[in-house]
Amino acid sequence: MSNLKKLVVDTDAGFEALAASWRLLETQVPQLLPFQTYDWNRAWWKVFSDSSWYHKDELAICTLHDGGQLVAVMPLTNTHVGLHSLFVYRYVRPFGADPNLTEIRVPLALPAYDETILQQWEDLSRQETFGLTEFQVIHTRQHAAHFLANNAAVHPLEARDVPNFILHLDGNWPSFKSGLKRNIKESLRRCYNSLARDNLQLRLQVWKGAEAIKPRLHEFYTLHAARASATDTVEHPDYFADPRHCAFMAALLDSDFAKRMHLFSLELDGHVVAMRLGFAMGEELYLYYSGYDLQFARYSVMTTLLAEIIQWSYPQNFKRINLSVGEDVSKTRWGPSVTHYVEHQCVKNNAWRRNLGNGILKMRKLRRNWSGKKTD
Which ranges of the sequence are coiled-coil (predicted)? Predict the structure, then answer.
């Protein structure tokens, strides 16, 4: 690492200039996540960055070059509250400060540079001269813990675990199915038997790319909203009720990322009853948000759709299916492996910033609790 060069990109022109080297790095990183790609981050910045006289998001894309090659990139937003030069509060955090559209916000790096890119958090903390800066350090549990233990300038206030569940597709569908736990085997048997009993013909449709997905996106949003209204299962918000979230999906479909996008559709007698978005990430299929028609809930159509996607994935040569983040039985009963990510809220390590940071965290929790009581 003798030729290692650190650079923070803080202009739109600089961001665009990273496109070719960032995309090249994507091809070299094992188990690439959709949220690490150039196109995802470029679309996110266009849709979600905010600027007003008292609130301003600035780019702070940390990069590492070794021998002239981009080996790591960590896209950060540097948000000021107050006058730019005399801010009262600043928040430096990875791209993806949205309600769970960007599910995992870790740097993109060749394995040898995973912890080196995190060192730039300490560089950023040293630049603070006025007001309180809050940092959000996110990585795997192992890398984050090692960084915080060896960088005394950054003090962690609070942590949130982000478990990510991944199915490994060894062998074929029959061998995969035989290795499942008894409860999911029985659930699958009931799913398919109930359809056969009612003479419903099942069909999986897979739509790929912008041209195929765009005309069907409204139907996906409708089914997703229906899923959000269900009260007899794990509750999920309607993530696409916000127009900005739909604008973000449209931006992805207008970018090169659209080539990765798949929309899986489960049909019963020609009627679409369930849909799920997925992203092809090399040897891994990342499964994203879903929705279904509540009138067909008795057939457990989401379980059937996932089973059909798994079967479809084998001839497509996917080695893994990423079931996304969040621990619930719809993921854990399939017996996946788990990658543990963690989000640390941090401040610069001195007494008054630690005390003020803890005070702000307490106020946030009180506000969340109060908001929850008002909506009950």
Answer: none
SS3 readout for 68-80:
CEEEEEEEEEEEE
Highest-pLDDT range among 45-59, 74-88, 115-129, 163-177: 163-177
Is 170-318 in the same CATH topology as 4-161+340-375?
A: yes
- 152-210 pLDDT tens trace: 888 888 899 999 999 999 999 999 999 999 999 999 999 999 999 999 999 999 999 99
* Residue 2, strand partner residues: none
Query: Average pLDDT of 96-124?
Result: 90
The SS3 assignment for 65 reads strand
What are the C-alpha distances in Å from 289 to residues 11, 130, 262, 343?
Answer: 32, 41, 12, 22
Rounded mean pLDDT of 127-132? 58
What gap in Å lies between CA 123 and CA 281, rounded to an integer? 32
Is the backbone of residue 67 left (phi > 0), alpha (psi -120 to 50) or beta? left
Q: What is the CA radius of gyration of the chain?
A: 22
Is the CATH number 3.40.630.30 carried by domain 170-318? yes
4-161+340-375 CATH choice from 3.40.630, 2.102.10, 1.10.1760, 3.30.450: 3.40.630
pTM: 0.92
* Residue 154: predicted pLDDT: 85
Nearest Cα residue to 72 out of 114, 126, 40, 109:
109
Which DSSP string do the residues of 312-331 spell out, in sequence order? HHTTTT--EEEEEES--HHH
Domain boundaries, the chain: 4-161+340-375, 170-318
Question: How far is CA 360 from each of CA 80, 112, 158, 282, 365, rounded to the nearest angstrom?
Answer: 16, 36, 11, 41, 9
The CA–CA distances, whole Å, from 70 to 3, 108, 223 equal 12, 10, 41
Give the span between the Cα atoms of 165 and 171, in whole angstroms: 19
Q: Are strands 154-168 and 320-325 parallel, antiparallel or unpaired?
A: antiparallel
CB contact at 8 A, 279 and 259:
no
Dihedral (CA of 20, 21, 27, 32) sign: negative
Token pair, residue 30, equals 């094992």
